[in-house]
Write a structure and sequence with these properties.
Layout (H helix, E strand, L loop, with lengths): L1 H5 L2 H13 L7 H13 L3 H13 L7 H13 L3 H11 L4 H12 L8 H4 L32 H6 L1
Helix pairs in contact: 2-3, 3-4, 4-5, 5-6, 5-7
Length: 158
């Protein structure tokens, strides 16, 4: 969570995936949408795709097909073929004015930079592996969450 709060886009995406999955506690799509948006604003294609799904279906956000079109288009521009197909499907459902506005939003989109301290962690003075591990208090390292596009909504669409 600290990395996401400092501006690390992959950490933001991973938090969104966890919120959407719910971890047995029930999905929190509103929070997932907020984290997907922050990561999408920083250019994470999987977050852009998932945000397109959420806007298309009105899950965690108010349904907005123009926003959905925008996010699918941005993900497609990064090589996501599924996003391109979904973008084309959404385009058929938009009126000419909404489509033109969405295309303008895409043209003016610029990914936000990530702060250096969010993506570059200084090596401790003694190095990463030099700290002694005490067997009685050592915990197994948590598995990192893979940056994948799983939200219950996105999984159903894929």
């Amino acid at each position: 969570m600290q990395a996401a709060e400092r501006g690390n886009a992959k950490a933001m995406h991973n938090l969104a995936v966890l919120d959407a999955d719910g971890g047995g506690k029930g999905a929190n799509y509103k929070s997932a949408a907020q984290w997907f948006r922050k990561a999408a604003d920083r250019g994470v294609a999987d977050s852009q795709f998932n945000l397109g799904i959420l806007y298309a279906r009105g899950i965690g956000v108010e349904q907005n097909l123009a926003e959905s079109f925008k996010w699918f288009s941005l993900a497609a521009a990064q090589g996501d073929a599924d996003a391109g197909h979904k973008r084309d499907d959404i385009a058929k459902r938009l009126d000419a004015q909404s489509l033109a506005a969405a295309k303008l939003a895409i043209q003016t989109f610029t990914a936000e930079p990530q702060p250096d301290d969010a993506i570059n962690v200084a090596t401790p003075a003694s190095g990463w592996d030099s700290a002694p591990v005490q067997a009685s208090t050592a915990k197994p390292a948590a598995k990192p969450v893979a940056a994948k596009r799983t939200a219950s909504a996105a999984a159903a669409a894929h």
